[in-house]
Structures are given as C-alpha cells and as structure tokens.
Design a protein that fits this description.
The structure is a homodimer. Chain A has 7 helices and 11 strands. The first copy, chain A, is of the alpha+beta class and about 220 residues long. Chain A has a 4-stranded antiparallel beta sheet with strand order 1-8-3-6. In chain A, helix 4 (about 120-145) runs antiparallel to helix 5. Chains A and B meet through helix 2, helix 4 and helix 5 of A and helix 2, helix 4 and helix 5 of B. The first copy, chain A, binds a DNA duplex (30 and 30 nucleotides) through helix 7.
DNA sequence: ATAAGTATGTGGTTATAACCACGGAAATGA
DNA sequence: TCATTTCCGTGGTTATAACCACATACTTAT
C-alpha cells in the first residue's frame, strides 16, 4: 500500500485517495505463477496492469512461431496501458509472468467514466499521460538511433543524444556492450570492433561504460 | 471551430465545451510561414501544438549536423505532446513549418490544473491519453518489424502483423515500395529484389500494394 | 586465493544488404 | 492523346555487418 503510492502511476495520490479509488474503480489483484500467460495476443484488454511484485515479460510471436522479448516490466511499472487505452485494439503481444507475481488491474473505462465525487482519478489519468508520453520518447529515441545503416552512425546518433542529455562530452551509459548492441540493433562483436576503430580514429575515448565524445569544437 | 471539434484531441467535446476551455485554458493561435522554426531542439515546451492548417515537420539534427525527418503532422494532428506532458524534458527535435500554417497551443500545466467548474478538460486529457497510446503502438510495431536482421524476416514480421490486423491472408498495405523500405529501414531496390525472391519461393503473391501471404496451413 | 563465470576485444570468413545504373511500366497531367 | 514523371524490378559490384572462434581482462563466489 505504501508501495503503491510511490509508483509512477499513483504518484501524488494520498492513501485516502487510493482507498477511495479502490472502491470506485474496483481494483483487483491477481497472483500468477512463473510462466503463466497474463494477457494473450489477440485478446482485447481494458485494464492496465500494475506490477506489485515480481516481473512481467512482454513477448512477441509472429505467424511462423518466432518469439522475441520486447521488454520486461518490473515492480512499480505498468504494462498493457497502450492497449487498454484504445478501445478494441487487440494485443499484438503476450504478457507472461517472468517470475511469480502480483498484478493490480485497473479498468480504463471506469477510470475514464466521470466521477463527480473524487478528483483523485484525474490525477491518475494525468500520471497515465505522463507515463505513456515517457514511453513514447524512449521509443522515439531508439527509432532515431537505429535508423542509420552503419554502426558508426548509430553510435554517433546515440552518443550525441546522450551528450546532450547528460550535458557533457563525458558520458556514462546504462548498458553493457551486449545491451548496447541490442538497443542499437547490432551484433555485439561488430559493435566492439567499431568502437575500437573509432578510438583509433580519435573520435572517442572510453573505459568500460564511460565515454568521452570528441567533438571537433575545442 | 467546427473543424476543431472533429480533431482526435477534441473528439466528444461540444462547441460550448471548447469555448469554455478556450477561456479557462487560454488557447493561443499563431501563424507561421513555411520554414519557420516553431519549436527548437533543446527548449522546454509546456504546450501541445494542434495543427489547424498546413503541416509541421519534425526534424532531428545530430551533433555533427546530420538532419533527418522523423515525421509530418498534418491538420488536425498534434505534435510535441510527449515533451509537453513531461516537465523539463528538452526537445530532441525541431518542429518546423512544412508549409504556411496555423497552430493552436494548449498549455499542459493548465490542462492538468484542477478546474472545479468544467469537466470538459478531463475529456481532453482522456483524448490525450488515447492519442499518445496510439502513437506508442505505432512506434512499437515499427520497432518489432525492424529488429530482424534480414529483409525477408522484416517482411515476415510486418506481413504477419498486417494479416492479423486485417484478418485475412490477403492484405493491402498503405505504402508504396519506397515508403515500405523507409518504414522497415531498408533500401528500396534491395526490398524489391527480396520480394521477387519470396514470390519465386512461393511464399507470397503480390500485385502493386496487394499481397497474399501463403501460410503453410491450407 | 582460486576458480568459475561473465564481459570485452580481435581476427578472419562469409552472407547479405546497400549502392549504382538502367529499362520498362504505370500513373499523372496537359 | 501524348508527354512527363514517378514507380518498380533487375543485374552487377562493393562495402559492411553478422557470424564464429578465441584470448584476455574483469567479477563474483566460495
């Protein structure tokens, strides 16, 4: 309960607000065991899932049975919110219990239904806008960084964004090499090679996850 | 005005609602001439831009000056909403007048501020959630389709999603070849070649923008 | 301290996608 | 209708990234 009020979705809500909403909006919690399918591709969802404990894996399976993992939502995070917010939009992915977990379901239609009494749910909707907007920016950034054809250009794109975001030519990235490769849609060893070349070419310096990007502006 | 009530952002609002909000939320319209920079990268925005006429181009410029166009927002659409919804998030992109245009600015902080009188703005916020959620799904889909390494696999990914969405093995896609290549992050001629091979291999049939995807299930 | 496991860099090979160029088809517009 | 332009497929070449294998450095645990 104390945990809930600290999640991005309920940020700014008092415990009283939450209890109030729990009644009005008919919150529901469910337990799942590792491997259980929480939401199935093709189904229509109307509920946001808030992960109370454990984690949820978002999996994509194409027509030919090829699977790939699109993301993990940990405790405190929400999943399926984009599908839940759009009426009649079938899920493209499965939500699978990555480990034993506890999920709080919140009905978007109820959330959107006007409630003259409590202004609390408006706060919730606002948080929801911010959460989806933030996910949007993350997706946009990745799109930008993976659009160049060459490894070097993708790294340039990513680095320049990080330089701007961190306000310095000296940046620390939140990825190890494999994760960076996944993020930029590259092979790890090819990535390592290109980083080495860029260092030789005097474009960057790096040590582990710390990089110095040398712009020609002195 | 009649136009405004038909935009996705104001869907479901009566003219009275809109006039009401125009007062409370202090709507502002601005004219821009083709080429004008409406919003500059690095700046903090708090307003959503609703395109009343003309169109707005979203441009990304990296540290080395390389530009790329990320998208166009036409009349009725909104832009910068993700940045406006997240406090202190600097724009990564420029918003440029693609042609002479008229922009309605709506302050998100005002939109989020509680107004005891009018419930109309809640409707607006709900629409905003749906708009961002929809953009989210679009971005996710593209991410899914561009993650495979080979052209054929990207096409499989895209086709299988379309088959599912259109509910038939016979699909019509909204792209010409160049656009499909851009969408899947491919070279056009390479794309054409691979489509030809897939036809030879008996996997698909196509004619212009109509495709038949042959699953092995008869 | 040592061992096991993980992360990273590097060389070499190969598949493959980008690139360039062009010819024909189809759409557009006068 | 004809002219013009855009769109699409194809061949050939080349650059490049994936892939494989391995050696070294770094972590972590016991």
């Amino acid at each position: 309960m104390d945990f809930i009020s600290k999640t991005p979705l309920f940020r700014g809500c008092t415990e009283e607000d939450i209890l109030n909403m729990a009644k009005h909006l008919d919150f529901r919690t469910d337990r799942y065991k590792k491997g259980d399918i929480i939401l199935r591709a093709g189904s229509i969802v109307t509920d946001i899932g808030l992960v109370l404990s454990g984690s949820v894996r978002i999996e994509y399976t194409d027509l030919w049975g090829n699977k790939s993992i699109l993301g993990i939502t940990h405790a405190g995070g929400v999943f399926a919110e984009s599908y839940a917010c759009i009426p009649d939009e079938p899920m493209m992915v499965d939500a699978v219990a990555n480990e034993d977990c506890n999920i709080l379901s919140i009905s978007v239609p109820r959330l959107f239904a006007p409630c003259p009494v409590c202004g609390s749910q408006n706060r919730l909707i606002q948080n929801l806008v911010m959460i989806t907007a933030e996910k949007n920016l993350q997706l946009s950034r990745r799109s930008m960084h993976t659009s160049p054809k060459t490894i070097r250009e993708r790294l340039f794109s990513y680095f320049s964004q990080q330089v701007s975001a961190q306000g310095s030519n000296k940046i620390v990235i939140p990825f190890d090499r494999q994760q960076l490769a996944d993020y930029l849609n590259l092979d790890r060893s090819a990535l390592s090679k290109e980083l080495g070349k860029m260092r030789n070419d005097g474009l960057i310096e790096f040590n582990k996850n710390s990089f110095v990007i040398k712009t020609d502006i002195e």
